[in-house]
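Reopening this ticket.

The earlier resolution said the output was attached, but the attachment link was broken on my side. Pasting everything inline this time so it's all in one place.
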Amino acid sequence: MLHQHDWSESSLVIDAFTRELGRIVLVARGAKRPYSQLRPVLMPFQRLQLTIGRSAATAPAGGSTGAAAAAEPQPELHTLRAAEWAGTHAQPRGAALFSGFYLHELLRALVPRQDPHPRLFDAYAQTLAWLAGSDESLHAAALRAFECRLLREIGLLPSLDLDTLSGEPVRSESFYTWSAEGGIAACAPLDDSPPQRSDTGLPRQVRLSGERLAALHEALDAPGLSALVIACQDGDADLKPALRQVLHYHLGESRLRTRELMRDLQRLSSRRAAPSPPPPPLEPTDP
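Inline output:
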């Protein structure tokens, strides 16, 4: 379950990511009632076995009218008949929980409805397992791996083993830029000067080594996600800003709440961790 919102006094609209049908929207009638069998099951990060019916009617249960009814005139709505747990697994916790919700926002913003992506579904499940692991040093690599897999599955990832413009193979000893508009392009070697930043705060040009691109290309063709996570390690300096720039371009006007929330929390933590200034010296007083 990627997201849910109220549809009537007792029903919910669920945005779900499924292996067979892709991302679908479901009406869970009566799911908000205290004794509903759906209520304890419809939780994020849980793998579920769903039973769905044909497209739901556009009017919510109970004959509700007004804004709620007018907001949902979608023939792609389906009725959720039943939902059962399909096995349990470790859940992301702490900061990794925000990373899990970040995955949900990416899926909702970039994956069209009713467009099946079985490999992406498997990558999502595997990424949750990495985020639930105790090795926090691999959490960032797992996110980068999922971002790469997502871009490839929805057709927005250029061939990482070729210079997009010239068609020449990527050389491990050379350096390249990766942009949403131009794909992979050869550039000058890395130097110590910081990259210029655009109005959005993202680097205008992010340079990656051909060795990094070749490793990513090979890992993307490997089964599972483990090889890709390894190829994405230590990517904060190059891979993370490159992917952020590409995703920002394709997201357009969409703003990711989890990213903004994490940024705010980091600012708050840094303020709390900063040492407080010493108190001013006491002024002498008359006896």
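Reporter confirms the inline version is readable. Strands lie at 3-6, 12-18, 22-28, 48-55, 77-85, 175-179, 183-187, 207-209. Confidence is low (pLDDT under 50) at residues 56-73, 191-203, 280-287.
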